[in-house]
Amino acid sequence: MRVKQRLLFFYLILSLFAITNCQRVQVSKKPNVLLICVDDLRPELKSFGAEYISSPNIDAFSEKSIKFQKHFVNAPSCGPSRYTLLTGQYGPTGNNAFFTRANEINQGTQKVNKSMPEWFKKHGYTTVSVGKVSHYPGGRGGNNWNDSTKIEIPNAWDKHLMPVAEWKHPRGMMHGLANGQIRVKPSDMDVFETVEGNDNIYPDGAITDEAVKQIRMLANNKENPFFLAFGIIKPHLPFGAPKSYFDKYNDVELPEIEHPQKPKGKTTWHGSVEFMKYNRWSKNPNTDTDFANDVRRHYAACVSYADAQVGKILAALKSTGADKNTIVVLWGDHGWHLGEHAIWGKHSLFEESLHAPLIIHYPGMKHEGVNTDAIIETVDIFPTLCDLVEIEIPEYTQGTSLKELLVVPSADGHNAIAYNNNASTIRTSTHRMILHKDGFVELYDHTTIEKETKNIAKEHPELVKQLKNKLEGKLH
Ligand SMILES: [Ca+2]
Predict the structure, then answer these.
(1) Does the annotation count 386 as an active-site position?
(2) 187 CA distance to ligand 1 centroid (A)?
(3) Reduced to 3 states, what is the DSSP secondary structure of residue 87?
(4) Cα 112–174–397 angle (5° rounding)?
(5) Would you state the pLDDT for residue 112?
(6) Gap from CA of 407 to ligand 1 centroid (Å)
(7) pLDDT at residue 302 tops 80
(8) For the chain, what percent of residues have pLDDT higher than 90?
(9) What's the gap in Å between 334 CA and the centre of ligand 1?
(10) By the 8 A CB rule, do 365 and 292 touch?
């Protein structure tokens, strides 16, 4: 009897151990997430068809991933676009979008839904952000963007880090130029610059070093999967990058700027205020071709510099071995006009402001190096990541999981919407409709050569009506 009891006890302990161990294995098997956010990156990458661009790291990553060729952001500026990424919901139009939400959380005035990092944290993930992930690099407000009593996304991150190196504070880093130069008055700061030196003479070097350090620590944690968001500042203005990246473009012939004319009728065109306020030696890229080419080469240098930072983080991930169990997403927060429609900047609702790269790799994927032309939008990323790691998709998210497209890249996408302060827009696989707040409508046919240079709204009232209904249906 005693022997039997002992045996029973032994089996009990053994099965308890097996259950616990099995649970642990299941937890550790959840894939990690590495979310790479690149500021103001339009699809100006070799892998997206810009042949003159040197982007070897992102191109190599694309070869192992799915490229979304028709990814549109939901807002053409940093704050509101990142809001849709990180909350999974359409939101306010201004750069204060996160703080509006944070105030509601802090005051307890209404139920605020969990952000993507908070949702992953709830499901056992260690959540860390490094660099510019929400609107303010490091995710804090205050005069110098380093006030820890002012958190942009409460409850989201276990750590939200922003190294400042020689630039003193996150605000200094955001618009910093070489060797610690901080923007005081934009008109005193050059719109572009190249200085000889290594990657760390510009702000993204320090951000990348910190992200590499974090990924090594996170990969060592065998208990919990990680959700690491890494935000690179370039190619945001001012266009500063080490000279070695600029030198890649010395002898490069730039492609012609498509439809460079200022639109004639009413549109969301603007005077490129963000660009024009910098020191540009009294030159205007709309009237000075040599200067326009200089601007474009400096943007390209910043893309190559950002690409090098992406290469470092992916190499670090690989060196830990965690790459085999990590979903990697590379996302541009919106597009940027490089002279199209005579705009140098973002903020419009033209294609150039809203079109940004999205590349997704996940463990065990079948279609590496494949493109999809399905129309999709930033708000889809939150539900997609939930789907890929097999956690519940919160009912309040407004996007659609892209899982089906990842499995069958030829599957259909869906309409993409976006908004700024003055208008909202919907993009179908054939048309873009823009509805201004005063009721004025732009309608463009993307199947024609004119694309967004010929407003055909008056000739197609039925289509306008249908698209208005679809747009309103998605926004409400
Ligand atoms: Ca941005």
Answers:
(1) no
(2) 20
(3) helix
(4) 25
(5) 84
(6) 30
(7) yes
(8) 92
(9) 6
(10) no
Scored b (16 or more CB within 10 A) or e, 167-198 reads: bebbbbbbbbbbeebbbeebeebebbbbeeee
Structural Rg of the chain based on CA atoms = 23
> From the CA of 94, how far away is ligand 1's center (Å)?
12
Q: Domain residue spans in the chain? A: 37-411, 422-476
Kindly report, residue by residue over 382-439, the tens digit of the pLDDT.
999 999 999 999 999 999 999 999 999 999 999 999 999 999 999 999 999 999 999 9
What class, spelled out in words, does domain 37-411 have in CATH?
Answer: alpha beta
pLDDT value of residue 17: 47
User: What digits encode the pLDDT tens for the residues 70-108?
Assistant: 999 999 999 999 999 999 999 999 999 999 999 999 998
User: What's the mean per-residue pLDDT of the chain?
Assistant: 94
pLDDT band at 26 (very low <50, low <70, confident <90, very high): very low
Choose, from 71, 135, 361, 414, the residue flagged as catalytic: 135
| 135 has catalytic annotation | yes
Q: Which positions ≥6 away from 215 have C-beta within 8 Å? A: 34, 228, 313, 316, 317, 320, 322
Dist CA 17 CA 208 (whole Å): 41
Quote the tokens at residue 424: 């909202």
In the set 22, 37, 71, 78, the catalytic residue is 78
Q: Are 39 and 231 in contact (CB under 8 A)?
A: yes
User: What spacing in Å lies between the alpha carbon of 372 and ligand 1's midpoint?
Assistant: 24
Mean of pLDDT values over 13-37: 63
Is 236 within 8 Å of 203 (Cβ atoms)?
no
Q: Which residues of 406-444 are buried (b: 16+ CB within 10 A; e: fewer)?
A: beebeeebbbbbbbbeebbbbbbeebbbbbbeeeebbbb
Task: Report the alpha-carbon distance of residue 179 to residue 172 in Å, rounded.
Answer: 11
Ligand 1 centroid vs 45 CA: distance in angstroms? 17
CA angle at residue 229 from 227 to 234, to 5 degrees?
A: 165
Percent of residues in the chain assigned helix, strand, coil, to nearest 5: 40, 20, 40
Q: How far is the CA of 278 from the centre of ligand 1 (A)?
A: 17
